[in-house]
Amino acid sequence: MPRTKKRSAGPEKRTEGAFLPTAHGDFTAYAYPQTGDGEAHLALVHGDLHTDAPVLVRVHSECLTGDALGSLRCDCGPQLQQSLREIGQATAGVLLYLRQEGRGIGLAAKISAYVLQEGGLDTYDANLALGFPADGRDYGQAAAMLRDLGVRQVTLLTNNPEKAAALRALGVDVVAERALEIAPSRHNLRYLSAKRQRFGHRLTLVGPTDERRAQ
Q: Do 57 and 154 meet the contact criterion of CB atoms below 8 Å apart?
């Protein structure tokens, strides 16, 4: 059986906020240390969250290959940048960056899953073949962070209806969902198709004509 990290019931006390100017606007960064594993979730806050209007929120799970290295195998990096862009233009918003690499299986296992995908499995079945759930993410930390930040109502940036349902089940008042679709390429079309067919993501998979011909 694969080993999994022990999850804490909620975030520890957040750090003091630090000013974080970005290409997409000015944010305040708060780190939420996790018990026992040395990692920390991150909250990037834009504007005043103490408002009666819904706050624009993106709950983004870590993807080192896509977010930092620019991998084209997934849509994670472009989704992260588009989220920051939209939140930076909003009156108030939050990006929660959760340390849940590979839908919760970790970086090493994700690379092993890539190898299985090159052998013909999709991203769903590759996780199962390694003994992990298809999606092992836990949104309890995200819900606790939003409560700690004083967010009362949320417009959620996501294509994943299960993410919205999970947050609602944890007490987050998700009043609306906003699509965050990135045009597919020849490198990630199969991955995105699996997200639509196996995970139920709301995706049209409409992309540039030359990319579609290249499949």
A: yes
- Region for 134 from its dihedrals, namely left if φ exceeds 0, alpha if ψ lies in -120 to 50, beta otherwise: alpha
Q: What gap in Å lies between CA 12 and CA 133, rounded to an integer?
A: 26
Distance, CA of 189 to CA of 212 (rounded, Å): 9
Catalogue all structural domains in the chain, each as residue range(s) with its CATH number.
Answer: 18-100+137-213 (3.40.50.10990), 102-136 (no CATH)
* 174: Cβ contacts below 8 Å, ≥ 6 apart: 154, 155, 156, 164, 167, 168
Q: Which of 3, 67, 137, 147 is catalytic?
A: 137
Q: Identify the CA nearest to 57 among candidates 140, 167, 138.
A: 167
Residue 137 is a catalytic residue: yes
| Residue indicated by tokens 């759930």 | 133
Q: In what order do the strands lie in the sheet with 25-33?
A: 18-22, 25-33, 40-47, 92-98, 55-61, 154-157, 174-178
Among 7, 48, 135, 178, which one carries the catalytic annotation?
135
**pLDDT of 9-64, one tens digit each?**
455 689 999 999 999 999 999 999 876 566 899 999 999 999 999 999 999 999 99
